[in-house]
């Protein structure tokens, strides 16, 4: 049998041991879900889980390369040089053994090993529909009880169906899900389905942990900004001018204004239920009326509970909301004339290319944003970064440029196709034409591979006489086009990169992303428009592997952004860049902290340029980044300092808030008021007591007042002590935050969503140097910390459309305020859970009301909450992030 012969032959790393020590607890729900950064040893963790479970298992991997890596890693557990020679190991679905390693494609297509699909550059087509009954029968017949999902984020629609049917047919099946990049940024239904199959995330092994353990290398992110080309500027200007002319026309168009003034929401007998169904559109209507007429609509103002001064100025954002409401709401109360006008308006918007498939492009144009993401000027940026890196690193440079597309269409036609967009071929061509080491630059993609002729001999030597063909490349004298099996070419080019024959390798993320490993890479240029969590982390992982031959290695990762700061729509690529930084943690530029988010970059050159010195935004940013990059030697020491301290520190799901919740001010004022009242009462008692012994004409009056005051203080002693207790809670600057966190934590524990005993949990509040606050839950599992952070972000963030609200109303000395907080979604699915949260809130924070927003009264309160959010001069800045802390 397999299991007695299996034993890991090395020492477990601390982070691996942490996961393994808790494995029995995590498997209580028959699910083990581990998120581990590249280099964490997911494979050996999966094999150890297989050894401890001692059940027949099937391993599913996204590619044949990764499938074979699983079997090869068995050499760390038993004495063998050829794992396939073991009689309990298989890589065929039609011949499963105790341990069977196959690809997701093989599961889906029931094909043998030689029929497995090769990994492709672009999105693969799904294989033929699988006979799920055959797979289920195979699993049952061979008593498969464990499925190990490697890189589980690869699961696709058809693969889901198969796995769902397998899990349904075999209820006791254990799922072990391993991934470096869970689909955090997927839509809610997709994430729900992913979590139902894989289970909640049990453990996370983060990049900082691996750097601290010297498994990954120190690194830093940099940003290179480019001004878009004249052609792209013209497109942006054309779009902005079209939108501007359209909106100006609508303001002056009598027919449009008549439709607005005759809107049913402006009737004296207003049906508030329709307003409550779309309060943002109602606010947009008020914004337009304020801009156009400067007059009020009393009924609508009353329904939204706002004043005329609180109405924002008309902007493209409000135009987008208003037009979407008018064009797509399909309200039956629209009159015939309005309906006819809106139909004509739709035609005009389509002719201006501002409306396509019911997607209105007033604020942003996806076509323009796509153009910026693939700007031809980013090709120039790659050349500038290459020159900078070569000057700094010299012969030690091992650079990889990753793109989304090849863009070699021009090679297949004799006529010019105009300016080229961002792609592997344009970048390779540009680098070879400008770099002093052009002979050390190579191109590796799925259908086009090119090296300099001086490397042919080394290449053929690495290929060991296998089927590799080199032919002169006519478009570039001195270079040759290489053909052969893709896996062989990938291994050969990688070997030349490791040797230093190739110093810069240009390729696609699909080929050189997941599964590709070259620890020597110390410079990575992400010439990619993809900003998803999954792909961003995959590509960054190529540069942060530790090079055992150069343990002092420090990597640089370059992100490209194209800007047109003169145009209102020229910042789409910048916004996408900031979202990309939400997907990974890194070292902050101006402090020794490690966290996710764009804020840590402190890109003041870019931010100042965007606000004050617009024409110089790109220049200011790049000069700042060049200055930082020249100090890259200090990055290693900064990582070391940031990681020093508590040995139990790890990446913790956290919430950052820049402004303390308003309810702290309320509690503080009310606490001081009650304390002041009781203090004055006590002074009155003392004066009355003295008056009794003074034996003057006021003695009896003071005595009566004193007795009454003393009786009141004694009867309200409990409430007085409660007031003092609240004051002690909220007087610390982070007091209200801590109490809100306690309320949420207690509710999650009582609801059974957090299994760790409440007494072992702690709410951590940390104030940063910029006066912002970080909140997190310590003492529990990673999943519990993540659940807490998600709920807290909803609780402190803007009001959207929650099922329940907690509302606290108060008045003191003329000071009145209503504070609205959304009950976190996980605690709002049922009334019983919402009431658990409400009781916890009342106990830890203070008196309030629980409102069900799907009722008539509740919808009114929800509208008030959202309306005040729309009109606020500023919003509490709250964001969910991950942060390294103990």
Automatic annotation (TrEMBL):
Pfam families in the record: ResIII (PF04851)
The Helicase ATP-binding domain, residue ranges: 23-200
Gene Ontology MF term list: ATP binding; DNA binding; hydrolase activity
GO CC annotation, single: cytosol
Entry keyword set: Membrane, Transmembrane, Transmembrane helix
Transmembrane segments: 668-689, 701-724
Region forming the signal peptide: none
Protein's name in the database: Helicase ATP-binding domain-containing protein
